[in-house]
Amino acid sequence: MDIPKLSSTERLILDLLSGEDMFGLQLVEQSNGALKRGTVYVTLGRMQDKGYVESWTEKQPAGAIGLPRRLYRPTAYGLRVLAAWEAAARAMARPPKLRHA
Amino acid sequence: MIPGRTLHRLAGRICTTKTLERVVEPAIADLQKEYAGITAAARVLRARTLLRGYVSLLKVLVICALSGQTDTEEERNMLAQTFAWSVVFVVASSALLILPPLYHWGDALRGWYVVMTLVPQAVPLAIPIGIAFGIALGGSGRTAFRASTALLLCVATAASLLSFAVLGWVMPAGNQAFREAAFRQVIKPGYQGPVTLRKGHNEMTFSELRREVTVLSASDQPREARQFSFVFHLRFSLAAAALALASVLLAVGATHRGLRASIALASCVAYWMILYAGEEATLRGYLPVPVGAWLPNLMLMSLAIFVSSCLRGSSLRGQKGVAQ
Asked: pLDDT (tens digit, 9 = 90+) per residue, A1-52?
């Protein structure tokens, strides 16, 4: 069976989200420049379509102005895909054992 | 004041509900929270936050607009390639147009400032060339090329608007700045005082051109009046060149990239030849000024309509479902 596709950006987002639920801007801040403000929500939207993450809007206190922010967390499926990719990456990184004659 | 409200309304018009909720609104919410978190006294920080937020929001909106217009990966790739090739050709054409004056003045006129004053002169000519070759080399699949006709026409229209802005306001100022730089460096080297050079037709704004036409007409100088009037109308017609050239390429709708590039080259050459013929005919009084200035656009647009009606279902546009 093929492993579902996971880009490096998606891997990074799942990795960051595996620790705690986060807002988009928090992801940008914690990625050390790897994620950009202009594209992070496009990527998160695409990941939501693929079923890797789920999101909901924060509960705003009474009298708060402006739009509510959106919180993200990985789905069980997203974490399984991430684990599969990490396992594949580890397997590929392992140097082949040479047989001595 | 809460920032992002206008952009939110704009996004509501161009994005789907899902995109609005998942992509645009969180970005606006970030901007609003960040802005609200900064005290009113920190004006510079507030301005920087607003600028950064709006730039990222605009980026989001452009992505949404493009993703809403393009249905398939093939179309998105085609659009990205069209954009990339257009930029390459605009830059290359601009460089080629800038080199002759620099070469002509030799070592007497050097420096980035001089080059920057020449750029606005080159860009309005380079934009139509860039758009034509961008469309010609950008797409490879028949389906994507045909399906994106409306989108490519929108791109050409945007390029025309940009070209118009440069022709109308940036180019006259750039030309005048170049002449002043040439005066300081070549005619009177080392001169630092104020320079007041009489503007030529290429340095005049729209209102100055109109005023000059009235003055020349009143002083019985019809040829000069036609010259200034031609430049006035040329600013509009040259801006529409990108749209005219794009129309021809999209009307032919050839699937083969090489054929499209040949058509782009032929269209550009034909455009400039007709333009010079139109200018001569106008200055000699054979054609009314607006007709002379708009002649290349009128001819190419007519050709596009004619070709489109003749080639409907032609083999030049490729077999259905066959991608080159």
From this structure: 677 888 888 999 999 999 899 999 999 999 988 888 878 888 898 899 899 9
Per-10-residue mean pLDDT, chain B, length 324: 78 75 88 82 80 78 64 66 89 92 73 84 94 84 59 82 90 88 76 79 91 92 92 95 91 82 94 95 93 95 88 56 37
Give me the sign of the Cα torsion angle B181, B215, B212, B101.
Answer: negative
The confidence score (pLDDT) of residue B92 equals 95
Nearest to B33 among A42, A55, A66 (CB): A66
Distance of CA B47 to the CA centre of its chain: 30
Quick check: B48 contacting A, CB < 8 Å?
no
* pTM confidence score: 0.61
Query: Is B24's CB within 8 Å of A41's CB?
Result: yes
Three-class secondary structure assignment of B21-88: HHHHHHHHHHHHHHHHCCCCCCHHHHHHHHHHHHHHHHHHHHHHHHHHHCCCHHHHHHHHHHHHHHHH
Q: Return the pLDDT at B64.
A: 67
H-run or E-run covering A29: helix A24-30
User: Sign of the CA dihedral B312, B318, B321, B324?
Assistant: negative
CB contact under 8 A, A38 and B23: no
Nearest CA in chain A to B32: A66
In the stretch 49-78 of chain B, residues with CB closer than 8 A to chain A read 52-53, 55-57, 59-60, 63
Measured between beta carbons, which residues in chain B are less than 8 angstroms from residue A42? Answer: 23, 60, 63
User: Residue A99 carries which DSSP code?
Assistant: P
Reference B51, options B10, B5, B1, B3; nearest CA is B3
Number of other residues whose CB lies within 10 A of the CB of residue B161? 14
Task: Report d(CA B181, CA B108) in Å as an integer.
Answer: 11
- In whole angstroms, what is the distance from residue B7 CA to residue A29 CA? 24
Nearest by CB to B33, which of A36, A48, A69? A69
Examine the pLDDT at A91 and tell me if it is beyond 70.
Answer: yes
Closest CA to A16 of A7, A6, A26, A2: A26
